Backbone:
């Protein structure tokens, strides 16, 4: 059911063109007011909960960085015990709080089968502390702790395939989404809400501050990520990857350079000298992934 | 009231069961593991209507406690030692969010070297988390204090988490006879509880806000006022407990202190040994008494002063150590008296770390050392380590 009233209100302090509030609004409006949300420490908590104000029109709890999933576990069980099991429980985590420090708590929550919808808002680095790399940071991106330099191409490890790792827990539903494809995102969120048990929704949310692009480009970059095959939109029930559903297949996939050139974090791959070797590796990895997933039409 | 013989962990688990918690998130750790085992058994046998969450770490145990408690559920858990160290971050947050979670602890040493035996370092190290801290001498106290802790912590004037410590193995795995309070009486003493402010879609509010310098200090101040207020609430609840169940609790329980030159201050299971030692020394004509500290937070400073002010020495026994200073309890006892124009000498004895036995002869040595300070009129060595194994030093 689509909600008329915004459940994540205006007046929050996110950067102009931040991708997170766009995703949060879509998720909450899909869930409706009978929802309790958990948010981990990070940009979202900082910009939306400064006492005595709050941007949240539903009950929200923030406790710490690494434990959205375990806080949500306690909520879900308590609600069931208190006869209020019809309330949705949505746990939000950033990429740092989900891929890295909160990974154990997330795995535990998924394994125990809690009826929690976990939404990872992925902007591919520790943005709240000032753009440090994490295991979600893509190969070749320059961050403050993986800076490009004379002896560095920036981040030198591939992005952790977290959504696939979550699906490998054999949870009922896993999906990826991004804000350029809001209808796809909402549909997946609705599927998660309609599915009993733990669900994981991985949402790519561009960050103008950390990715270094002009603020009017947020949606465009989100779209190019999909059109180049850098970020694949898929959904899966259970853990049989043969049954994966690619929700946005691409005809005439664009070269990754279109994605890389749009953001300052990859600028060092083009100047002062062209790092064709790095770009080729990124393209090769994307090609392999797209072939494996069957992305190309 | 039925009398049964059970181990300490069973006593705290039984105290929890009688308190009717809704949710019990827990993670196994020696020496507290029997607690979640027993709760699981109660639930499996239909003797307890609670939900257990078998979390993947102590950090998640306390996190799940916070989530469940914020929904208005009555929540308890159990842990010890490394587990408490791991959940420490969330213990601060539980107190800051004013959630009345109760935890049973099997007091155990902290690594390194790793050690599973009795020591108070694990909970003493958490004294600044904002939790109420109770320490039991016997299994009966472990059982009773669990029920008492729920009632104190859930009081609207308090709304803070609390822990009940029972000594590793000396209590957790030692069988003693306990009186089991009748469920009906416990239900009267500890009725169903309702958290006024909870996570409720009918009344949305934000828990765990970002607190800027403009407001943070006031949040902490009101939290501290609540734990200070809990001092009176504890007295009320102890009195009500005595009326209902016949057993007396005091924050500090004195023994033969009225005319004592030396008062030995203890916590936990060694308190019984202290009384036996006092009896032996009294027979030898030594003017010695002892005090057992049952409540460590809020620190019962005023009660302590009233009970000990006429002694010549307060011998503080610390089963913990703040490296580079001395025992934690010693520091706090000393601070109570520092502004008094005249006060007893205060000496500190580090004893029983990592499960070393505390013996009657140790108390005799402590008495002698304390009287030596009286004779000299000053304390030459304020912090002394008792019963050292000189061969390995």
Residues:
């Amino acid at each position: 059911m689509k909600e008329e009233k915004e459940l994540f209100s205006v007046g929050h302090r996110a950067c102009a063109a931040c991708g997170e509030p766009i995703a949060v609004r879509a998720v909450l409006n899909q869930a409706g007011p009978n929802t309790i949300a958990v948010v981990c420490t990070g940009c979202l908590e900082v910009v939306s909960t400064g006492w005595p104000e709050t941007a949240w029109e539903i009950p929200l709890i923030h406790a710490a960085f690494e434990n959205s999933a375990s806080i949500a576990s306690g909520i879900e069980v308590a609600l069931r015990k208190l006869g209020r099991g019809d309330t949705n429980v949505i746990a939000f985590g950033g990429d740092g709080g989900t891929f890295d420090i909160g990974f154990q708590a997330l795995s535990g929550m998924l394994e125990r089968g809690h009826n929690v919808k976990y939404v990872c808002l992925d902007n591919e680095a520790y943005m709240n502390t000032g753009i440090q790399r994490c295991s979600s940071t893509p190969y070749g991106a320059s961050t403050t702790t993986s800076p490009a330099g004379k002896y560095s191409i920036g981040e030198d490890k591939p992005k952790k395939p977290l959504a696939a790792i979550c699906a490998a827990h054999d949870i009922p539903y896993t999906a990826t989404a991004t804000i350029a494809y809001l209808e796809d995102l909402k549909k997946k969120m609705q599927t998660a809400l309609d599915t009993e048990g733990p669900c994981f929704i991985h949402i790519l949310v561009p960050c103008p501050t950390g990715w270094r692009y002009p603020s009017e480009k947020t949606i465009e970059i989100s779209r190019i990520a999909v059109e180049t095959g850098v970020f694949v939109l898929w959904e899966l029930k259970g853990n049989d990857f043969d049954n994966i559903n690619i929700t946005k297949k691409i005809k005439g996939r664009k070269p990754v350079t279109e994605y890389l050139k749009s953001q300052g974090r990859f600028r060092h791959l083009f100047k002062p000298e062209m790092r064709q070797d790095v770009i080729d590796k990124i393209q090769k990895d994307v090609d392999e992934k797209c072939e494996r997933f069957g992305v190309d039409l | 009231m039925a009398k049964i013989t059970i181990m300490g962990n069973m006593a705290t688990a039984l105290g929890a069961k009688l308190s009717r918690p809704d949710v019990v998130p827990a993670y196994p750790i020696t020496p507290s593991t029997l607690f979640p085992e027993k709760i699981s058994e109660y639930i499996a046998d239909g003797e307890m209507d609670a939900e257990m969450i078998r979390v993947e770490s102590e950090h998640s145990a306390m996190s799940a406690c916070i989530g469940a408690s914020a929904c208005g559920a009555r929540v308890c858990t159990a842990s010890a030692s490394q587990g408490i160290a791991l959940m420490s971050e969330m213990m601060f947050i539980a107190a800051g969010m004013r959630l009345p979670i109760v935890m049973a602890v099997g007091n155990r040493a902290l690594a390194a070297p790793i050690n599973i035996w009795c020591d108070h370092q694990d909970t003493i190290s958490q004294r600044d988390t904002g939790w109420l801290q109770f320490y039991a001498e016997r299994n009966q106290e472990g059982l009773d204090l669990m029920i008492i802790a729920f009632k104190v912590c859930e009081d609207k004037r308090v709304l803070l988490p609390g822990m009940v410590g029972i000594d590793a193995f000396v209590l957790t795995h030692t069988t003693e006879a306990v009186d089991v309070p009748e469920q009906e009486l416990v239900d009267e003493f500890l009725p169903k509880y309702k958290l006024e402010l909870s996570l409720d879609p009918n009344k949305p509010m934000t828990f765990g806000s970002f607190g800027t310098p403009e407001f943070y200090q006031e949040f902490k101040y009101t939290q501290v006022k609540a734990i200070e207020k809990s001092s009176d609430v504890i007295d009320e609840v102890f009195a009500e407990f005595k009326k209902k169940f016949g057993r007396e609790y005091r924050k500090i329980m004195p023994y033969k202190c009225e005319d004592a030159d030396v008062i030995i201050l203890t916590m936990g299971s060694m308190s019984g040994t202290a009384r036996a030692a006092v009896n032996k020394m009294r027979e030898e004509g030594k003017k010695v008494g002892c005090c057992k500290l049952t409540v460590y937070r809020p620190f019962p400073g005023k009660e302590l002063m009233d009970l000990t002010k006429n002694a010549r020495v307060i011998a503080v026994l610390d089963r913990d150590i703040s490296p580079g200073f001395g025992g934690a309890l010693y520091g706090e006892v000393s601070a109570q008296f520092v502004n008094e124009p005249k006060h007893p000498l205060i000496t500190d004895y580090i004893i029983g770390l990592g499960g070393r036995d505390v013996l009657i002869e140790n108390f005799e040595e402590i008495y002698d050392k304390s009287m030596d300070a009286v004779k000299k009129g000053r304390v030459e060595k304020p912090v002394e380590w008792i019963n050292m194994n000189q061969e390995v030093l």
User: Anything to note?
Assistant: The domain at 19-293 of chain A is CATH 3.40.50.970 (Rossmann fold). Chain A has a mean pLDDT of 97. The two ends of chain A are 32 Å apart (CA to CA). The beta strands of chain A are 35-39, 60-62, 88-94, 117-122, 148-149, 152-153, 173-178, 199-204, 234-236, 245-246.
